[in-house]
Amino acid sequence: MRFPAEPFRIKVVEPIRFVAREERARLLEKAGLNIFLVPADSIYIDLLTDSGTSAMSDQQWAGLMVGDESYAGSRNFYRLEKTVRDITGYRHVIPTHQGRMAENLLFSAMVRRGQIVPNNCHFDTTRANVEAQGAEALDLVIEEGLDPVADHPFKGNVDVGKLDRLLSANGRAKVPLAMITVTNNSGGGQPVSMANVRAVREACGRYGVPLFLDACRFAENCWFIKEREPGYAEKSVREIARELFGLADGCTMSAKKDGLVNIGGFLAFNADALEEQVVNLLLRVEGFPTYGGLAGRDLEGMARGLGEVLDEDYLGFRVGQVRHLGETLDAAGVPSVKPVGGHAVYVDARRFLPHVPQAQFPGQVLVVELYREFGIRAVEVGSLMFGHKDPQTGQDVYPKLDLVRLAIPRRVYTSEHMRYVAESVIATHLRRESLRGLKLEYEAPVLRHFTARLREFEPAAAGT
Ligand code: P61
After folding, report:
1. Which ligand 1 atom lies nearest to the CA of residue 181?
2. Residue 234 above 50 pLDDT?
């Protein structure tokens, strides 16, 4: 068997539409070749994100019916609190409507202007929330984590030498906390080893700096530890998770990933002093601490999802499904980030389309093609998302990599859907030389990829 088959059967179905190619081409044209502006019900397979797109189980849906919508003291909060305490060991559990609010609360309480917050790689919302405090968000992932072809079992690891130098040069006064993102989304969904988290813990401990996990994909990370790290094969993922969280002082969580819900998150930690500050802010911006911006039913769905995500049959299937897609593409010569991460396959668009210069957005070329020809939505993580003008020189600056992320929602698509995706990407690869670059027609001053409008170069101008 290539990987375990789906450990669930389908009780409810949601029809998806395969609209005609001419209609897809028209929608793309109308959207200025920006896939964010194409209506979702005209997409056949949507791999834009694995965030908030999970299918809930029958038990989770049943849980919604026992939602207690009391303003204060909802029973669903106590269930969530117990679940999170059991998994993490942290005393204080503050629900939030999603991950970025947990980040906002944490950094508002702990980070001041001029300070530095290290991480393996900050996700964009994490970076934005650190910077909103006037602080610097510093990425310290190991060298291999920046190299798409380097083979390393834990490419999400922090460079502990660099961290140690940062801490010894600056101390706690300048570094109010350190973070580790598990798995490292910005680096390709790559896991972090237990040994690395322990080494970071020790470094932080020497300088009295608290350590927090960005735990969105903690269960997938723990599955990789079980598979790859010596000494963990016989431990349960739940035990591994407990050990992982035990090395940190707290975590932020977007439950839209490994909470298996469509909305929800939390901030959890041990420090009593932090609780007061966080709750005071929460009351002003999010809600009472026993609901944190969510309905009671959402808290119940999250509590149940956090239990289900630790099921090892589920995790074996989940990580296996993503890996199988990556390996199928690899076997056909499609260049991608290796090894395959936990939640997504990242196609390397610069190597896929070497004739399209970065100034002509090779990742977006591939995204447009996958939708127009096959009804698949992927997302560009490259020149369109991160390219910008240098304010000093006025020159265009491009990121090192132009990637196309195929993020796989949890429990949503079958292996047949994945086969269709693989065949579509491979077919596109076979005719890659016919694909042309794109030109930017409109860009907003910030986060331009969400609203940008582009057009194709005319054949005669291609490659110029
Ligand atoms: C995603 F383009 N991720 O991967 P929230 N930490 C980490 C995340 O992956 C993450 C959050 C914190 C998304 C959704 C997304 O500009 C974007 O619950 C490691 O979304 O607030 C989210 O969690 C934030 C995609 C978010 C984006 C913002 O697709």
Report:
1. 19
2. yes
